[in-house]
Amino acid sequence: MPMVGVDCFVMQLPKDDTRTPTEVAERVSADRRVAWAQPVSLFRAQGSGQEPLYAAQPVAQQWHLAQLHKVATGRGVRVAVVDSCIDAGHPELAGQVLFNENYVDERAPVAERHGTAVAGIIAARADNGLGIAGIAPRARLLALRACWQAALDQTLCSSLSLARALYAAIQQGAHIINMSLGGPDDRLLALLLDQAQARGAVVVAALPGNGEPFPANHPGVLVVGGAPPVPDGVVLAPGR
């Protein structure tokens, strides 16, 4: 990964190896020729995929989207959605996806709920008589599949697939990088986030939960979370 000044190598332990990935990483890190080694960590998408439209339903009223879209629609903005596979053929997302790549595996991906829901909330087409209007309906999406839909309605990601997707987001000139996910602190991902921000990208992450603080805890990251309905005129601004 030249843009962060490191060469990355992936090591896979034999199935009969009794050592843990952490033990092996510590041993490899002790080699003076190695900058550092780290286990491949698991991340989880935040938010439920059961009702993908639920989170967007109150937004039109609470955020006054009709008025907002009179002055800002996201025209000219590239938003990288680092998530599970986006259904680029969905009527609400027709023509919205500029770049679509799979960083999880070599198989042809199929549309997955979490990534498609997030993409719709961001950039669903407005005034087409279908479903919802996105927050930025004139923005264009970089669909970067770094996560996969797993059992028990979970969406999971690995630090390796996330690193590959972040690298692509920077290469593709993303203005905004959305990461609706959380996991453990990660040195390589932190370097990539720093590089993205140095190039002017805004990184948006989900409010962390279940002891999974990263990337929300990274300096400069804009953290977004859900809130219960509030009276008109009331603004909730979490912070410290």
Summarize the structure.
This protein is α/β, with parallel strands linked by helices and 240 residues long. 22% of the residues lie in helices and 18% in strands.
The average pLDDT score comes to 89
The SSE string, one letter per element, is: HEHHEEHEEEHEEHEE
| Uncertain ranges | none
- Tell me the radius of gyration: 19 Å
* Anisotropy-based shape: elongated
Question: Helix share of residues?
Answer: 10-25%
* CATH arch. level architecture of the domain at 41-47 and 67-224: 3-Layer(aba) Sandwich
Query: What fraction of the residues are assigned to beta strands by DSSP?
Result: 15-25%
Find the CATH superfamily of the domain at 41-47 and 67-224: Peptidase S8/S53 domain
* Sequence of strands across the biggest β-sheet: 3-4-2-7-9-10
**CATH T-level fold name of the domain at 41-47 and 67-224:** Rossmann fold
CATH classification class of the domain at 41-47 and 67-224: Alpha Beta
How many DSSP H or I helices? 6
| Main sheet: strands, sense, barrel | 6 strands, parallel
Structural class designation = alpha/beta
Quick one: how many beta strands? 10
Distance N to C terminus: 34 Å
